[in-house]
Amino acid sequence: MSDSEYQDPLTRLNTTLNKSMAFMETSTKSPQNSKSNKAVKINTKSQPRNATKSVTSRKSILKKRNSNDENSEQTESLNVTVSNGNSSPKKVQVVSRPKSLKDLLRNENLAVDSTESTYGLEDLSDNEEIWLMNIPRTINPRELENQSLYLGDRSKFRIGEERYYAVNCEAPDSLTCVFNTSKPRKSYKTVNLKMAGTITVRRKLPGVLKIKPEPEERSKVPFPKNIKKRHPLFGACYKRDLI
Fold it and tell me: Where is the composition biased (Polar residues) (predicted)?
């Protein structure tokens, strides 16, 4: 007879449990490839296939401008849309800054005036004082001939039926003026001039007539008639008290 036949039931139960625990330990020690515990191996020695192509295909950020592009940017106008709150958007045309006299004539739609200049650059000298005169639009500058003005003081004069007066104002430090040079090539020249003073001409308004208020007529109150005479102490029956 074998030894297992002589073992009691408790010993056999312990033996069976020990065997089952041994099987469980071996099963837990075996590696499990779970989805959450994945290892990734990085090979630093390997290189991408298109590495050289990516380097050679890069383009520089800086780009040379063509002369044609610069000229087109100078002459081209931009259309900008401006929206103000709830109002409908408005298109504003932004014109490039003029670089020459021809650009200025084209942008501003100016016309050439063939009027001869009466005062040129040759007429200026260091011994002369230059005064700036501001006049109303209603005055023709030629009508100021033979008029007497006191420089630095208030003066009065008449043109037609209108009366004017001139006052002295603060002069600017310098003023940019364009004068005729009487040369065929450069007929005009820009010069900064220092002003001796500024004269402002204004039209004299007619004086307001002073209206005197008319005196009010005082109405007289008629004195009442048939009034009894009264004594200040004894009243109307003062004769009886006086006897």
Answer: 17-59, 74-90
